[in-house]
């Protein structure tokens, strides 16, 4: 959806065309859901919270003043809602503490090895604490700039850069520790 | 051993599988939106009433304290009751405007404080007048 059509859609919703909001939901649902799911880890809860986020966006659409991109405003609501729901529901997250290994066979094709790496990395990302999971999702999945991430999460720009760098290094080390080649 | 350098991990992180919500997600959201009550038909909920009472009580207390300590005015029971109605009325009136709840309460508080201060000022003026007449 282009910025112009997005603006037009928002204007239509504000003029009372409620059904036009479906265009916004359809466009952003996957990205918002991915962010919330990565933070909350539970599919059903994440879906419920994502619905709440879109309803909140609909109810507060008139307060969107175009000081930032619409997506940044929406993501900010999504991030804050997910964080407050995690606190409200007292969800406890445990990082992967046990050491496990996944063997890669020498005769595996390059594609198979990469698929296995991605699968394990996905598992490791899913085990990250909510804030780290959000930062990684926003940066790698949603291609958000550091400035946008800072605005969405309320974390200072320098702090966001450091946190993403550290999380990336942590994941790299964890992945290195998990995947091993079978000895011939 | 495998070597995972920085660009490699970046590349892998970008290839993480996409996550999608359920098939009826948009329809569910739109159904919930359709079921939302109209903004104009805002109902007076128990929360509103609680806020009004709390705000009014605060005003009565503040106004009474101000009148007593600053102007040495003793309020009778009926005067206090009158102030309660004035403050509650101001809060109730402001509630029907098309503004958000915090603004309503703030409006009620400001209105109530103004009325209480005006009331206290007038009573003080009357008292001084009576003292002057008596002397």
Secondary structure blueprint with pairings:
The complex is a heterodimer of chains A (184) and B (135).
Chain A (H helix, E strand, L loop, with lengths): L2 H12 L6 H20 L2 H17 L10 H19 L13 E3 L5 H17 L3 H12 L4 H8 L3 H22 E3 L3
Parallel strand pairs in A: 1-2
Chain B lengths: L5 H9 L10 H10 L11 H26 L5 H19 L5 H34 L1
Proportion of strand residues of chain A? under 5%
Residue share in helix of chain B: over 70%
Q: Alpha-carbon distance between the termini of chain B? A: 105 Å
Portion of residues in beta strands of chain B equals under 5%
Mean pLDDT of chain A: 85
What's the N-to-C terminus distance of chain A?
52 Å
How many strands appear in the DSSP assignment of chain B?
A: 0
Strand pairing plus helix content of chain B: what structural class?
Answer: mainly alpha
The string of secondary-structure elements of chain A, in order, is HHHHEHHHHE
Uncertain stretches of 5 or more adjacent residues of chain A: none
Give me the number of helical elements of chain B: 5
Biggest β-sheet description of chain A: 2 strands, parallel
Largest beta sheet of chain B, briefly?
none
Identify the strand order in the major beta sheet of chain A.
Answer: 1-2
Largest interface: A-B, 38 and 26 residues
Uncertain residue segments of chain B: none
Helix content of chain A: 55-70%
Shape of chain A: elongated
Characterise the protein shown here.
- The complex is a heterodimer of chains A (184) and B (135).
- Chain A is mainly alpha-helical and 184 residues long.
- Chain A has 8 helices and 2 strands; from the N terminus they run H-H-H-H-E-H-H-H-H-E.
- In chain A, helix 2 (21-40) packs across helix 3 (43-59), helix 5 (110-126) packs across helix 8 and helix 6 packs across helix 8.
- The mean pLDDT of chain A is 85.
- Chain B is mostly helical and 135 residues long.
- Chain B has 5 helices and no strands.
- The longest helix of chain B is centred in the C-terminal third of the chain and has 34 residues, at 101-134.
- At the A-B interface, helix 2, helix 3, helix 5, helix 6 and helix 8 of A face helix 1 and helix 2 of B.
